[in-house]
Amino acid sequence: MQAPKSIRIVLLWMLLMDMHSSFSQSSMKPFGPGSSVEFTIRNFGIAVKGSLSGLEGTVDFDPQFPGSARFDVTVSSASVQTGIRSRDEHLKKKDYLDAVTYPRIRFRSDGVRTGTRPGHFVVRGQLTIKSTTQIVSIPFMAERSGTGYLLTGNFQINRRDFGVGDASISLSENLTISLRVITR
Question: Are 175 and 156 in contact (CB under 8 A)?
């Protein structure tokens, strides 16, 4: 028994759309120059800024098909810089980032959806710092940049949720992470 013509047409259309999605998805890498991972945290009520470098991984993203996008990126925990060398060395130690035992901070997406405005998206995934993995959502904007994209976004985490530092009356538990990722 053969399926009715209308069902065959629908199935063919679905197959072609799936193939188009697979072929249009660009596998890119974060491009170091111009990309940044920065954070801001309050210490004694003053905003302290810092950064992490060594961004690596893969980004499969096409804004026309956000549902099939995949992000798997890492950054070096030993690269932490705040402008004060002694503080940077302290942040690399076991009670904070433990950079010797956990050299990479990783984000792996579970899904991407469109945001509320054109060019805006939200990626949801697993952020792993040290041995702790938490689900986070990162709103971001995507703009075409040469052969890739410029992805920018901000999100907040609680450092204690990841076992980074102890309770402190001077150091905030919450920090904002700002991303600027150029893909190629």
Answer: yes
Note the CATH architecture for domain 25-183.
Beta Barrel (2.40)
**Long-range contacts of 37-41, Cβ-Cβ distance < 8 Å, separation of 24 or more:** 37/75, 37/177, 37/178, 37/179, 38/177, 38/178, 38/179, 38/180, 39/175, 39/176, 39/177, 39/178, 40/175, 40/176, 40/178, 41/159, 41/171, 41/172, 41/174, 41/175, 41/176
User: pLDDT per residue over 23-63, tens digit each?
Assistant: 445 699 999 889 999 999 999 999 999 999 999 999 999 99
Q: In 10 A of CB 86, how many CB atoms? A: 8
Q: Count other C-beta atoms under 10 Å from residue 172's C-beta.
A: 17
Compute CA distances 121 → 1, 3, 79, whole Å: 44, 39, 28
Specify the pTM. Answer: 0.85
How many helices and strands, by DSSP H and E, does the chain display? 2, 10
Domain ranges of the chain: 25-183
Compute the distance between CA of residue 157 and CA of residue 125 in angstroms, rounded to an integer.
Answer: 13
| pLDDT tens figures, 79-113 | 999 999 999 999 999 999 999 999 999 999 999 99
